[in-house]
Design brief:
Layout lengths: L1 H47 L3 H17 L1 H12 L6
Helix pairs in contact: 1-2, 2-3
GO molecular function, one term: ketol-acid reductoisomerase activity
Protein name: 50S ribosomal protein L22
EC number: 1.1.1.86
């Protein structure tokens, strides 16, 4: 009976380690994707920040994005307001 419990424990430990590794991998992939998106947004912003007409178009697109993604927009606003608290 003890041997069976030991086998079950080791199998659960292996599964836990695999799930932890998978979680870290997914988190890393998400970070990479977010960084790539940020880089693309910076390139787009530099293209739009040249003159007033382009700036107006950029602001319109930002508002459209905020309308389509309200939860993310709220998170961004909160982060901007408490940015000085974060290291």
């Amino acid at each position: 009976m003890n041997e069976v419990l030991a086998i079950i424990f080791y199998n659960l430990a292996i599964i836990f380690v695999l799930l932890l590794g998978l979680g870290l991998f997914i988190k890393y992939q998400h970070k990479k994707r977010a960084d790539a998106l940020l880089e693309n947004m910076k390139k787009a912003h530099s293209a739009f920040s040249v003159d007033r007409k382009s700036q107006a178009i950029f602001e319109k697109r930002v508002k459209e994005w905020e309308r389509k993604h309200p939860v993310h927009a709220i998170k961004q606003r909160i982060k901007k307001r408490i940015e000085w608290l974060l290291p």
